[in-house]
Design goal:
Structural class: alpha/beta
Number of helices: 5
Shape: flat
Order of helices and strands: HHHEEEHEHE
Distance between the termini: 58 Å
Radius of gyration: 24 Å
Strand order of the largest sheet: 3-2-1-4-5
Length: about 180
């Protein structure tokens, strides 16, 4: 976390020195004198980027419990309209915990609710915590009502969510849809 704090501190110091104002006014050049000043400031910026390159390298070396981002376990959430599945896997795809709304005791239409998704996610989080998982990356797929509730359930179950990625498949006008329902 110290690397992240160092980057935030550098950004704060840059904003305090007027870097924010300069960045906002950068596109407002109109005369030859302004263009000469812009060229001079560009040279100063290129000299300044060499000072920040070690900070960029430090930022990529952030760790959670000694693990880099790629080694953090992944929580896959599949939210359909009728059910929500939650599976926690290691970075090399070995399953640690798997639950769904149906395995948690919800039946029929109740499986498609946000409460059922939150309960299933909490159960998966407790199972994963029992196997030593503290931090997870979340991959969400589907448009069901349990998307947000499942992520909330993971945090309520004791897991810290590092990142959220949406993997919902979107057709680029692939298959022909079924005929319209008449009422």
């Amino acid at each position: 976390m110290s690397a992240a704090l160092a980057v935030a501190w550098q950004r704060l110091r840059g904003a305090a020195r007027g870097g924010l104002v300069a960045a906002l006014c950068r596109g407002l050049r109109s005369g030859p004198q302004d263009l000469a000043e812009a060229a001079a400031s560009k040279e100063a910026e290129t000299r300044g980027t060499t000072d920040l390159s070690p900070l960029i390298l430090q930022r990529s070396s952030m760790r959670w419990d000694g693990k880099v981002y790629e080694e953090i376990p992944i929580a896959h959430i599949k939210a359909t309209y009728n059910n929500t599945h939650v599976q926690v896997v290691t970075f090399d795809n070995m399953s640690l915990a798997h639950t769904s709304c149906g395995t948690e005791g919800f039946q029929n239409a109740k499986k498609g609710t946000a409460i059922a998704a939150q309960t299933a996610a909490m159960a998966a989080a407790v199972k994963a915590r029992g196997k030593g998982v503290l931090h997870v990356r979340v991959m969400v797929k589907g448009l069901g009502p349990g998307r947000k509730a499942a992520i909330r359930g993971l945090t309520m179950g004791g897991l810290e969510v590092i990142s959220i990625t949406d993997n919902t498949p979107v057709p680029h006008n692939g298959c022909r849809p079924r005929k319209a329902r008449r009422m």
